[in-house]
């Protein structure tokens, strides 16, 4: 009996020790071994490998599914995670618009029949969808910077118009908004209950899909918000460069990058064969089909589970789709290697990054304006920012992608502020160029704000070579 009691006691102690060890590891109090570069082999392959079923080799269908970002019930998210003695000061959110109808059509084929009205009991479903439509219908007198005031506040066409946001796109951003509400408002109390208009900064391009995506996220974040407190600013440039858009060298990088894309396409005989087969099916010259950017329309068929188009000459099929999608993935891989896009990205992303650190610095001074900033944008907005930050392994921005900058204050040392960068819910701070070596030099669990400020003001231009250490000089250097 005594032996049995001792055995049970030892078993209980072993279980307790195992629980304590796991708990300490969870709260990062015991270091967990990592490779020397600080990244696992999987994260080196691609930031945010989504489900655990990620295939061992690149699969175009799998990548396309991630791009569609079909709304699901649960989503992993690391937003708002910080040691208990850190206080959230401000949040800056960059989003790509949600799922949309194609911008291009495959010549001589029937357009995919997608309904862009919002129906509460139709999939994809969201419990706030009906309330969102009702609230948007009351916003006709709201204040928007011109020309935004002429745009519809939600999609409402039985057959989608070109580029129009779909119900899927609305639900994607209602989910984003609700997720951010649960973290930033309910948990961290970023905004007071009686928040004021000057505590929000809202900006969007002049497309209905970006305005509507921003409103959907905002409604999820602040349900039944007071329209009198909402003001969306219009941004004419997809780069959100405001008054700093003139940059000749950036345009030269873009021209060289486009030339690289063209040469890679010429080398891909399978791609040319596929375009030729598709051109015969729709009875147009191959050049015309290629110019129509068929992947844009094919992705709509794929994401909405609509059959690819057919003619009397045959059908566009999944094999055609796989070849074109595979080429896109190969193009992204070569783009990272050649680094021409990096040059474009540094100069393209600098103005918006500079605006962001300006807001952060004002927040560190105790200013209470613009605590939550939302930029509703495009893939061509987020992609350069990701590249400029050094997140070269990040996937191309999916529908409703979100990139978030969090600013934190150390309550134990109130003069010290830190930043976190999150992409689609994954903390990628220590993958960035400005903070990838921070953990080697400092035991602090977050990245100092001064690292990001120094990077944007000076260090990011090192990637361009030459002697330019500021935006103007880098944009106008002649030796390029």
TrEMBL record:
GO terms of biological process kind: chondroitin sulfate proteoglycan biosynthetic process; glycosaminoglycan biosynthetic process; positive regulation of heparan sulfate proteoglycan biosynthetic process
Keywords: Glycoprotein, Golgi apparatus, Hydrolase, Membrane, Signal-anchor, Transmembrane, Transmembrane helix
A Pfam family hit: His_Phos_2
Localization terms from the record: Golgi apparatus membrane
Record-linked InterPro entries: His_Pase_clade-2 (IPR000560), His_PPase_superfam (IPR029033), Histidine_acid_phosphatase (IPR050645)
Single GO MF annotation: phosphatase activity
Membrane topology: Single-pass type II membrane protein
Gene Ontology cellular component list: Golgi membrane
Reactions mediated catalytically: 3-O-[beta-D-GlcA-(1->3)-beta-D-Gal-(1->3)-beta-D-Gal-(1->4)-beta-D-2-O-P-Xyl]-L-seryl-[protein] + H2O = 3-O-(beta-D-GlcA-(1->3)-beta-D-Gal-(1->3)-beta-D-Gal-(1->4)-beta-D-Xyl)-L-seryl-[protein] + phosphate
Key word tRNA processing present: no
Role description: Responsible for the 2-O-dephosphorylation of xylose in the glycosaminoglycan-protein linkage region of proteoglycans thereby regulating the amount of mature glycosaminoglycan (GAG) chains. Sulfated glycosaminoglycans (GAGs), including heparan sulfate and chondroitin sulfate, are synthesized on the so-called common GAG-protein linkage region (GlcUAbeta1-3Galbeta1-3Galbeta1-4Xylbeta1-O-Ser) of core proteins, which is formed by the stepwise addition of monosaccharide residues by the respective specific glycosyltransferases.
Family: Belongs to the histidine acid phosphatase family.
PANTHER family (alphabetical): 2-PHOSPHOXYLOSE PHOSPHATASE 1 (PTHR11567:SF110), ACID PHOSPHATASE-RELATED (PTHR11567)
Subunit structure: Interacts with B3GAT3; the interaction increases the 2-phosphoxylose phosphatase activity of PXYLP1 during completion of linkage region formation in a B3GAT3-mediated manner.
Name assigned to this protein: 2-phosphoxylose phosphatase 1
Organism field: Pan troglodytes (Chimpanzee)
């Amino acid at each position: 009996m005594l032996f049995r009691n001792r055995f049970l006691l030892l078993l209980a102690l072993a279980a307790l020790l195992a629980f304590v060890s796991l708990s300490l590891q969870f709260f990062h109090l015991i270091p967990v071994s990592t490779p020397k570069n600080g990244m696992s082999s999987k994260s080196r392959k691609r930031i945010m490998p989504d489900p655990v079923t990620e295939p061992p080799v690149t699969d175009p269908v799998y990548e396309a599914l991630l791009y569609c970002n079909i709304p699901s019930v649960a989503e992993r998210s690391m937003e708002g995670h910080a040691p208990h003695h850190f206080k959230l000061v401000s949040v800056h959110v960059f989003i790509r618009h949600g799922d949309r109808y194609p911008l291009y059509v495959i010549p001589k084929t029937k357009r995919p029949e997608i309904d862009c009205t919002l129906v509460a009991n139709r999939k994809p479903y969201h419990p706030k969808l009906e309330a969102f439509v009702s609230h948007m219908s009351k916003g006709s007198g709201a204040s928007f910077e011109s020309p935004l005031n002429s745009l519809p506040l939600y999609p409402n066409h039985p057959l989608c118009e070109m580029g129009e946001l779909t119900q899927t796109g609305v639900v994607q951003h209602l989910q984003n908004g609700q997720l951010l509400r649960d973290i930033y408002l309910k948990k961290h109390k970023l905004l007071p209950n009686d928040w004021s208009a000057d505590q929000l900064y809202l900006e969007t391009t002049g497309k209905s899909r970006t305005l509507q995506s921003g409103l959907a996220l905002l409604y999820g974040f602040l349900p039944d918000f007071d329209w009198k407190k909402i003001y969306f600013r219009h941004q004419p440039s997809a780069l959100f460069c405001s008054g700093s858009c003139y940059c000749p060298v950036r345009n030269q990088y873009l021209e060289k990058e486009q030339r690289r894309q063209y040469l890679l396409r010429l080398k891909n005989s399978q791609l040319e064969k596929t375009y030729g087969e598709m051109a015969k099916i729709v009875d147009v010259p191959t050049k015309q089909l290629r110019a129509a950017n068929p992947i844009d329309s094919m992705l709509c068929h794929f994401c909405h589970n609509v059959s690819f188009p057919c003619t009397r000459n045959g059908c566009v099929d999944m094999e055609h789709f796989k070849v074109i999608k595979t080429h896109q993935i190969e193009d992204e891989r070569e783009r990272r290697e050649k680094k021409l896009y990096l040059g474009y990205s540094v100069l393209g992303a600098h103005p918006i990054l500079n605006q962001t650190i300006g807001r952060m610095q004002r927040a560190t001074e105790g200013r209470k304006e613009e605590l939550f900033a939302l930029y509703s944008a495009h893939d061509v907005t987020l992609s350069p920012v990701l590249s400029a930050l050094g997140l070269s392994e990040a996937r191309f921005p999916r529908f409703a992608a979100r990139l978030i900058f969090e600013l934190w204050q150390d309550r134990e040392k109130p003069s010290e502020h830190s930043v976190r960068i999150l992409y689609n819910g994954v903390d990628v701070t220590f993958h960035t160029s400005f903070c990838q070596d921070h953990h080697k030099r400092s035991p602090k669990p977050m990245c100092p704000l001064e690292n990001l400020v120094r990077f944007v003001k000076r260090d990011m231009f090192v990637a361009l070579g030459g002697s330019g250490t500021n935006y103007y000089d880098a944009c106008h250097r002649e030796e390029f």
